[in-house]
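Thread: "does anyone have the structure for this chain?"

Original post by V.I.:
We have the sequence but no experimental structure in hand. Need at least a predicted one for the grant figures.
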Amino acid sequence: MTNTSDLEQQARSQAADLGRKAKAAVAGKLREATDAAQSQAAQEVEDTADAADAAASAFSPGSMQAKAASMVAGHLEDAAHRVRTLDIEQTVEDVSAFARRNPLLFLSAAAFAGFAATRFLKTHDPDPEMPSRTVRNRAPVHEGGGHGVS
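Reply from O.Q.:
Generated one for you, tokens below.
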């Protein structure tokens, strides 16, 4: 019987080792993906800051528009720096702790963010060349609220 329990122990040890290796591999890939996404997001914010800076130079120096565009560019540059230096793992831990302490507030904020993202995505036509959807083969609606001819 000792032979069977030794084999069982070896199998468990190897399975645990494989599990640790798989977890480390997934964590590494996830870290690479989040680093790439973080870098891309920071670059896009930086590009937007550059565009705001260019817009500021298009206005007459000292004008309200030039000052506003310069202020926006400065804030965007700060935001790009914060995105670049953000510790994603610490942020995830902070958000998780907040969610555990305030589940109702967290779920409400998540629902609101989802609603806002949906509204934002709906307002942007993915292909401006495509005509908007039209409903076909429906009778016109008249003032009486019914369909068809009155």
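V.I.: this helps a lot. Residues 27 and 33 are 10 Å apart (CA to CA).
O.Q.: and The two ends are 90 Å apart (CA to CA).
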